[in-house]
Amino acid sequence: MNNKELHVLSTGRQPVERLVETFEEIHPYLTALHIREKEKTAREIYQLVEQLRTKNVPLSKIVINDRVDVAQVMRVQGTHLAYHSLPIDQVKEHFPQLRVGCSVHSLEEALRAQAQGADYVTFGHIFETQSKPGVNPRGLEQLRTITASVTIPVIGIGGIQPSHVQSVVEAGADGIAVMSGILEAENPLEMVKEYNSRLVDRKEGFHA
């Protein structure tokens, strides 16, 4: 198995101190740490990134969801956009140094994101997840259709347990994204190592 990306998204439910502590502990095993804090102001997100920086969490691993302004000011890895965010092509034009991802939920959305210049997309939810109760998962077949139709990386998201990783990768995904499965685990470090071990080519080691 080739090396794949591992993204972890904050849930918006953890105290800042706990989130910083956890990210400090798990970042060596990840490709990207997403600050996904919908209720926080730009200043609060800025302050959170500052705390992570003081804990030697590399800015090159931090992705800020939606807030392109904070991502640019803090010079982090990139920003992740949703349907309500700024247009992808405008962000790429004005902030070419940012890696820009986009959440998609259909083949049409994935093709549009690619055409607009997204560097990668996340697609889901793949499996049932508590964050979307009552909403049917989109499943591996839809994931397979999307990965076969676009040339940019596709990251699977939604209800992915360690036991699912192989099937998600075999469906063509370039990696996975996890929220509560790691951050709300009893032992986040143990869980991130478990996910990482399912993604990494053991002969080559992990390269974020």
UniProtKB/TrEMBL annotation:
GO terms for molecular function: magnesium ion binding; thiamine-phosphate diphosphorylase activity. Its EC number is 2.5.1.3. 4-amino-2-methyl-5-(diphosphooxymethyl)pyrimidine binds at residues 65, 103, 132. Gene3D superfamilies: Aldolase class I. Mg(2+) binds at residue 66. InterPro entries: Aldolase_TIM (IPR013785), ThiamineP_synth_sf (IPR036206), ThiamineP_synth_TenI (IPR022998), TMP_synthase (IPR034291). It catalyses: 4-methyl-5-(2-phosphooxyethyl)-thiazole + 4-amino-2-methyl-5-(diphosphooxymethyl)pyrimidine + H(+) = thiamine phosphate + diphosphate; 2-[(2R,5Z)-2-carboxy-4-methylthiazol-5(2H)-ylidene]ethyl phosphate + 4-amino-2-methyl-5-(diphosphooxymethyl)pyrimidine + 2 H(+) = thiamine phosphate + CO2 + diphosphate; 2-(2-carboxy-4-methylthiazol-5-yl)ethyl phosphate + 4-amino-2-methyl-5-(diphosphooxymethyl)pyrimidine + 2 H(+) = thiamine phosphate + CO2 + diphosphate. Binds 1 Mg(2+) ion per subunit. Its cofactor is Mg(2+). Pfam families: TMP-TENI. It comes from the Bacteria. GO terms for cellular component: cytoplasm. CDD domains: TMP_TenI (cd00564). Pathway: Cofactor biosynthesis; thiamine diphosphate biosynthesis; thiamine phosphate from 4-amino-2-methyl-5-diphosphomethylpyrimidine and 4-methyl-5-(2-phosphoethyl)-thiazole: step 1/1. GO terms for biological process: thiamine biosynthetic process; thiamine diphosphate biosynthetic process. Residues 17-182 form the Thiamine phosphate synthase/TenI domain. 2-[(2R,5Z)-2-carboxy-4-methylthiazol-5(2H)-ylidene]ethyl phosphate binds at residues 129-131, 159. Belongs to the thiamine-phosphate synthase family. Condenses 4-methyl-5-(beta-hydroxyethyl)thiazole monophosphate (THZ-P) and 2-methyl-4-amino-5-hydroxymethyl pyrimidine pyrophosphate (HMP-PP) to form thiamine monophosphate (TMP). This is Thiamine-phosphate synthase. The gene is tenI.
